[in-house]
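FIELD: query
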Amino acid sequence: MSTRTLPRTAALVAAVTLASGLAAAPAQAQTDPASQRQRDFTAAAKEFGVPENILLGVSYLESRWDANAGTPSTSAGYGPMHLTDLRAAGVATSHHDEGTEDPRGDDARPALHPQAGPAAPPPGLQTVDEAAQLLRTDAGTLRTDPTQNIRGGAALLAKYNTGNNWYDAVARYSGSAGDAARTFADEVFDTVKAGTARTTDDGQQVTLEATPDLTLPQHSDSNPANVECPKRVTCESVPAPYQELPGNDYGNHDLANRPESQKIDHIVIHDTEGYWANVLDLAQDPTYVSWHYTIRSSDGLIAQHVPTKDVAWHAGNWYVNAKSIGIEHEGFAAKGTWYTEAMYRSSAKLVGYLARKYGIPLDRAHIIGHDNVPGTIPSTIAGMHWDPGPYWDWSHYFDLLGAPLGGFGLPGSSLVTIDPDFAKNQPAFTGCDSPGTPCAPRGSEAVVLHSEPSETSPLLVDIGLHPKGTASTMDVADVGSRVATGQQYAVAEIRGDWTAIWYLGQKGWFHNPRGARVAKPAFGWVVTPKAGLASVPVYGRAYPEPAAYPANVTVQAITPLPYTLSAGQKYSSGGVVGSEYYWATTFDVADHVVVKGKLKYVQIQFGHRIAFVKADDVRFLPAF
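FIELD: result
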């Protein structure tokens, strides 16, 4: 852990500055229904003697002032103030236990399917009980009533404020200790200094006025020497074991020498489907699988498990594993939970740092979700994982990365970027809590595709997910007929308010009316089959030609996926990549070989997932 020392005088000055910066709300806001939440913050701050901008800042770092319809966050927090109730959150299982995906995804080794079992929420803070006692109310009210939730959070901050030190009170509110708590407080104070405003998920307009002359605490920004992390976040080392096991087996990752041996092309965003402590136990299990980092929901604490030079077993596709960094986020793809702002911010800082370090473009062709990783061969497609799910806010995430999505092309461009309004876009998914049960309405980054320009027409067919040729479904785990924020697709046709894109060899239609666009013009490059080719094969990995393999390395098959890229169709290009295969089947690193071929591929956005086509099979066309 790093050492961060906060001078008491700095915290006192900050508190005085914040308290003196409060301003009365405009008269119009006193009756506007859309400003009720603003009035709730004002009233609660006055009732409990908490500076209003501190109360607003803490709430923003927890929930961005959203109510989230009374559902819990990924760390069991409820409401705008993220009051935690671990009892109500339930149990969890690791997503690595679900489906048939082999996280390693290497045909040269036996499939790996470790089992973790259910994990109960960790014992810890029950801030909803603490707040309920202070307000003399019940936990259920605090979970579901935003006004009372804000009062509960204010009461807790007032209780935590000893010696008129609001910085320490904010740090304690995070539920953490040491550097992680101070990182959370730093983010709150930075937000208060800069100010912000937004419309919440339930239509409330909330503003935190900037406090530009705020005196911020001064302390060191050091992290342990053995972690790869940016400044202004707290990182710790929780190493994954590279360990020899019985039966000529080993775990739980592969040593390498990236980027000298192989270029790192992707950062893969995952969610844990489990709670922090249990997930860290799994990362340290030599018989389990691995990933490079885990990020905690409550405060954004980062744990590094595998050095970025090494290859972790996380994405279910060995080609992608060998050329990516995997980051797990404490949370759940669909179980009625939402991701905290503290985690979004910490993750964005980490990804920005890694992208700069390894020259990874900040776009959705290279910063991808696990749900965007392709199956390796036809038989693995149906078992691929789909986290972080349709409720991960890619638009907000890329804003935090300083690389906003959408809106950069000319009107009428033949390429579009998917970019719906996250809060207003609420597809009617099912299966979040149990199969077939409607999910609670909530904002989403996903846009659903239809086979015709009509909401009543069937969804598209994904022959890889549904080999019998049946249409895709609205099950939250079925990615066969949906696109995601930031992804780019070639326009196939426009009819009135409906736009069709090329998707898995079909036209996929979505409603895109003027004034409520869910896709925006883009510019870039698309690929289409070369003249004379009726169709070209599509692949889930970019493996070398057979002649590239040395005699002691087994040639890996170049197996096409069961889709068609036909003449006349166009797909967005993510760039040309070389062909590579990392032969790493033994514990002895001396036996490991990076095979590089002459064959070139083009990464394309083919469906919900990326894919690859041989560069010799396609030609490039500009789109703008």
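FIELD: remark
Confidence is low (pLDDT under 50) at residues 1-25.
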